[in-house]
Amino acid sequence: IFKNLNIIGIILHNDQTPFNNLIVNLGNNLNIKTAVLAHGIFNNNPKFLSILPSQSQKIFVWSKQIEKKINNCVKKKAIYVKGIKANLILNKPNSNDIIYVGSPYYLLKKVKKDKKFFKILNYLKKNLIYENFIFCPHPMETNKSFLKKIKSLGIIISNKSPYQLSTYAKLILGDYSSFLFESSVNNIPTVQIEEMIIDKGNIKINEI
């Protein structure tokens, strides 16, 4: 199929799932250029665990800082692409929803920010103006008690992707989610809650 389609390049979100790994290996064997798009927390992960592609030839990153850091470890592996992840979200005019893009509860607990999270979330819910205040859980979220407590604050919990929800958003809020970068480069007003961040290396939007 790859030969018949005359494919010259493969770009994936990651190459660490069995299917994606199979596709990348197939591409490499056929001398097709392979790459993955950057995702996840980089600066607080010196070994780049679950970040560097396992088989792809290149990784496209969203800042020169990350490009330099990766290439210091693996020469010529990372390529900075200006405008990466732009034009992914069509934001509707007169949108009036506020979306909080969540991090996994286990992470908030690990960095001892879980209590502060609820205080900040409750404050934002009471003091901002909006049509709907929606919490978008992380795809890895499994803690039902965590979601139940958020719901008790009068906040809508949605299982839709942040890309879908952002279509009607006037503001995106969050703490550790990499989606904050994506909403920013798609020209949606975006705020990262600085009080939730323990390491300034985890600031997502400092280079935009």
Features:
single chain; 208 residues; alpha/beta; five-stranded parallel sheet; 8 helices; elongated
Give a concise summary.
The chain has eight helices and nine strands.
Please report which band the strand proportion falls in: under 5%, 5-15%, 15-25%, 25-35%, 35-45% or over 45%. 15-25%
Distance between the termini: 40 Å
Which outline best applies?
A: elongated
**Kindly state the mean pLDDT as a whole number?**
86
Give, in spatial order, the strands making up the sheet with the most strands.
7-6-5-8-9
Order of helices and strands: HEHEEHEEHHEHEHEHE
Question: Care to describe what's here?
Answer:
- This protein is of the alpha/beta class and 208 residues long.
- It has eight helices and nine strands.
- It has helices at residues 2-5, 18-29, 64-73, 105-110, 114-127, 144-152, 162-166, 179-185; strands spanning 9-12, 33-37, 58-61, 78-80, 97-101, 132-136, 156-157, 169-174, 190-192.
- The protein starts with a helix and ends in a 16-residue tail after the last strand.
SSE diagram, text form:
Blueprint (H helix, E strand, L loop, with lengths): L1 H4 L3 E4 L5 H12 L3 E5 L20 E4 L2 H10 L4 E3 L16 E5 L3 H6 L3 H14 L4 E5 L7 H9 L3 E2 L4 H5 L2 E6 L4 H7 L4 E3 L16
Parallel strand pairs: 1-2, 2-3, 3-4, 5-6, 5-8, 6-7, 8-9
